[in-house]
Amino acid sequence: MKKLFFLLFLLTAISGISQEISTGSIDSLVEKTIASFRVPGIAVGVVKDGKIIHAKGYGFRSLKNRQPVTPNTQFGIASNSKAFTAAALGILVEQGKIKWEDHVRDYIPEFKLYDPYVTEHFTIKDLLTHRSGMGLGAGDLMFFPDSSDFTLKDIIYNLRFLTQESEFRTKYDYDNNLYIIAGEVIARVSGISWDEFVEKNIFKPLGMGTTAGSYERLSSYQDVIDGHAPVNGEVQVIPRNTLRVGHAAGGIYSNINDLSKWLICLMNKGASTEGKKILSEETLQEMWTPQTILPVYNPGVYNVHFNSYGLGFFLSDVLGKLQVTHTGGLEGMVTQITMLPELKLGIIVLTNQQEGYAFYTITNTIKDSYLGSKKIDWLQRLVKARKDELEEATKITDSVEAEIKKATIASTNDWKSFIGTYRDPWMGEVMILEKNGQPWLQMKRSPKLTGRMYPYKGTTMVVRWIDRSMDADAFVNFGLDEEGKGKSIRMKAISPLTDFSYDFHDLKFERVEKTK
């Protein structure tokens, strides 16, 4: 008997047979994660072998009302919406209405990018693969933070001003605006909005009864989270980003129970639990085939050999198993969906605080239990990683603060010579003005991007945004004309932790009006 037990133990150790994590262990993990990362509320779902084995809410929907999170609580899933957009295009391919290699201009004639060659050769598949040649998050300020007045028509037009930073189809740089264009392709081909299309062709057939394409389309607001972020050191409710345009890139609101049905469908060859076919296997294969290669700098604890982006999903190998995953983030909320199709395992983590290490802690711990991998204390590891990141960022921001306190602008470069209106081709006008004797910056088309300016070094100033939840204060560098007056503006985020969607570095403001 002892020999048999030892043999079974040895086989288990060699083969990595998984030990399913218990509900109690998940509960304990999430509660510790909430406390460690100061996340008011989290919802966790686990799907295994076509069934929901864990669906639970933890903490509070909002610090305002302190109502509990449930498996039906609605979260903005942000960029996890992208997979639905890819699937919707796949459905149109299945219907014979489009082809993946069709050119975008066949459906949106006014579509135009900076490079004429790229414009003419840009395909529907290219919209989904983050390989356009534009830089990371290029043009995101047209919808982020949520205060701008840019319309879909504006976004389509302004793409032509976003310069190529790499050769077409040679390099990965995450892009949101092209998913917005993908949503418009769906609308023009189907004759209904992107929201209506995914609701009709995906949500309804799967029984995702309370999921909506955007916040405004929710049937009820009784069980919806508020977004939260640290403001002056205290986590608090912040204004909601409803993503007025860009639903195809990140607008969906959903919950654990509904999203579990989506994962079951994806891992069941595109069929619902009732056997109703939603997606063909060909579409799924296309979505889960590497399209854009990402570098692997370090195999890490999961011995990763490849990393890539498919259509709406990141693809990699973890301990020899395919991993299909994506994250999503809007102001005050971040989410993660992960699947290991060979294990028929799906993990969903939804949070209402912009703290990504929280969902990584939970996902990795659950995932490890099924992989049978070496036990790692992800909570301890990621709490330390976050602490190190914050300390490094604080050093930078503190050094800038110290310079501000001792900085003065010489009389020949007095800040009043910078007052005026400057214009960027796609972002529009920014005003440098005087309020109560102090310099201020105000973006005309994005009211949240308003803040007081402070002298820094030479002709560089620092802008501190009124909305302190954004963590996106920026350097504002003025170019001078021959008279020593402000001629141009270039900007750059100060903190390395600033979200890449604050793409200040892509702005090229030139003076259009001088104040006498």
What's this, in brief?
It is built from twelve helices and 20 strands. With 516 residues, the protein is α+β, with helices and mostly antiparallel strands. The radius of gyration is 24 Å and the shape is globular.
Secondary-structure map:
Blueprint: H1 2-15, H2 23-37, E1 41-48, E2 51-59, E3 75-76, H3 82-94, H4 116-121, H5 152-158, H6 177-190, H7 194-206, E4 228-231, E5 234-237, H8 247-250, E6 253-254, H9 256-267, H10 281-287, E7 292-294, E8 307-309, E9 314-318, E10 321-330, E11 333-340, E12 345-351, H11 356-371, H12 378-406, E13 420-424, E14 428-435, E15 438-443, E16 450-457, E17 460-465, E18 474-480, E19 486-493, E20 509-514
Antiparallel strand pairs: 1-2, 1-12, 3-6, 4-5, 7-8, 8-9, 9-10, 10-11, 11-12, 13-14, 13-20, 14-15, 15-16, 16-17, 17-18, 18-19, 19-20
Describe the structure.
- There is one protein chain.
- The chain is an alpha+beta fold and 516 residues long.
- The protein has twelve helices and 20 strands.
- It has helices spanning 2-15, 23-37, 82-94, 116-121, 152-158, 177-190, 194-206, 247-250, 256-267, 281-287, 356-371, 378-406; strands spanning 41-48, 51-59, 75-76, 228-231, 234-237, 253-254, 292-294, 307-309, 314-318, 321-330, 333-340, 345-351, 420-424, 428-435, 438-443, 450-457, 460-465, 474-480, 486-493, 509-514.
- The strands form four sheets. Strands 2-1-12-11-10-9-8-7 form an eight-stranded antiparallel β-sheet, sandwiched between helices.
- A hairpin with a 6-residue loop joins strand 15 and strand 16 (450-457).
- Helix 2 runs antiparallel to helix 11, helix 3 packs across helix 10 and helix 11 (356-371) packs antiparallel against helix 12 (378-406).
- The model is unreliable at 1-17 (pLDDT under 50).
